[in-house]
Amino acid sequence: MGVPPLDVTDLLDDRTLRGPAFCEALTARVDEYLAEVFAAAEPPAGTALAAVGGYGRREQCPGSDVDVVLVHAPGVDVAEAAQAIWYPLWDAGLKLGHQVGTVDQLLEVSGEAIETATSLLAARTVAGDPDLVERLATGALDRWQARSRRHLDQLQASVAERHARHGEVAFLLEPDLKEARGGLRDVHSLLWVEQATVPILREAESAGLAAAFETLLAVRVELHRLTGKRSDQLLLELQDDVAAALDLPDADVLMAEVSAAGRTIAWTGEGAARRTRRAARRRGPARALAGIRRRELAPGLVLDDDRLALTDDAELDDPLLALRCAVAAARHGGYIQRGSLERLADHAVPLPDPWPDEARDLFVDLLAAGPAAVPVIEDLDHVGLFVLLVPEWEPCRSRPQRNAYHRFTVDRHLMETAAEASRLVDRVDRPDLLLVGALFHDIGKGYPGDHTEVGVELLRTIGPRMGFDPDDVDLLVAMCEHHLLLPDVATRRDLDDDGTIRQVADAVDDPLLLRLLAALTEADSIATGPSAWSTWKASLVRELVERTSHVLGGGDVGDVVGGSFPDAAQQALLDEGAFTVTGDGDTLTVVAADRPGTFSRVAGVLALNGADVAEASAHSEHGRALSVFRVGSVLGGSPDWPRIEDQVDKALAGRLALAARIGDRSRTYRPIRLTARPARPTVTVDNASSATATVLEVTCPDGVGVLYRITRAFAELDLDIVRARVQTLGSDVIDAFYVRDSFGAKVTDPDHLAEIELSVLRWVAVDF
Fold this sequence. Notes:
Helix content: 40-55%
Radius of gyration: 32 Å
Number of domains: 5
Largest sheet: 5 strands, antiparallel
Number of strands: 17
Oligomer: single chain
Shape: globular
Structural class: alpha+beta
């Protein structure tokens, strides 16, 4: 009689079993089943079935492989028994990882493959002769330690390659919980390092590592439960369900916990790697030892190569000691030794309110170190020293920004922005304000409400506490209040409209603040992600700053508006009056009769050809309309301009069924991955920016033909597009259109504006 199939339904249904507890229960169930299968196979004496790898460590998740080895004594024939064991397991649907061999054979393989070597370190008996498994486990550990230098080099290379391929748990929108930096595999790697050498983890690190591991393991279990398969990538569409399964309020809380766990694991791993490298160098030849330099930087502070440490006589009662250590480490591109960090944390006291001038100067010096300051601030933050300096930082720690536009958590984004700002300090009169403003410009994102409004209030507290005088506090507050002003206006408004320049000049009203905002805009954008800064955006911001600066300096706005679009060549095409459709490089230029729908039809043709419109501009005069589209990417490679030109010709002549064709394309086109919070479609009306046109700003999730749909809604109501600014932020679009009604006037009638909003929102929601 055969062994009944493995049934774990009760474990999967028991939602009180989570994380390690679930893994232990599932491991025990699999152990029982394999023991029954082993017994039914009636293997000869001198045979054992051993669990290895994750199964050996009792970390069995619902979708995990079952990794086993059938080990036997020399001369014992296990071929028949192996078949009798493996086939029932395959028939039961288990994802089996298996090997067969004697102890010596298996150990020989482990010497050639690091995956096998690390897997055997977890060997334990499931069934059969326990002495064989004990010999296997002991032999695996002996070989691992005897070949530690070689194995650790291989492990380090493997870890680096894995991190490069999978990114970092703490900052990814959809992290791989196992393979990414700060994931479960990194915890295993640290344990393997400790088995190869003397223990390298400090007691506090081990405790933090264990807690972080349990957090990620619990998430992985629920992920497998939900998907019914091995699925280690925490996809956006699964995050709310995983959060609910773990009784967390929402996906934001889940991802904050995942990020915090990932940071702890990565931070612990980095500390261990530093100690391992130093130990290897000290065991190395004299030439390597000669490269380790030890020098005293200040009383109580010693720099040993790149490691900053406190001496026994360090003045731990100095309230500025942590800042002094941080500045010294960052300036020398080094780090604070973990034991010294713990001593600093144990003796830390809050700074007086307000801070002494020296404390503020040290804080600015730390930020001025640029990228080298980021890991140092991370170190301070891990032991609670940074929050002691800035209590308002706490809600920002590991807080996710669940959209494809941002690549970092809130706290890391702020650090990266300050690091980028350090490269731009020569552009401003007050580098200290630039650096501090950069660090705190998004501080409100850790709190409920509008992050800018909250940030303004927080800076009214932070600034005086740091010892800035009232005028400087006002500048820091203004930097936070207007940190989105320049990029928003530059990319969404017509810079040739004098109303645009006047509005910015009135809002800023200070050349010093304008220069600070210009530098902050660049630093913030670069730190946000690759899609947030481009040559196009940089040129628009620079143009806006130059024109606003002219007005703030007493110049006339009329001296600086006009001429950027259309440029001389485009104006010549308009003046010629001939119908023109020209694709060149990444730009499509169309000159046609000015009638509602022209812009929309061109946008529709581009969507039909898989062209992603990165930016678009429109201008009309004297009955002619100029439309210029810059294509960011095209499915299949470069734009097929002859084909696109022909289709534009047909579309404008009414000989192309655009809506039907785009509908067909949308049904076969791979959908755009949306952010965790897709933008809610909105239409904002601005009748103040321009004296001659109404600005309609449309925000909505990106999708096939979305620009075509928005502008088709305008055409339906006979609106004339005289200017357009089109941009995609992550997976959302924020497009601004300068429009006039059929009489050439601004749209001010509330009923008409309501109809426009209704039409746009309906067309945006259309599912072709």
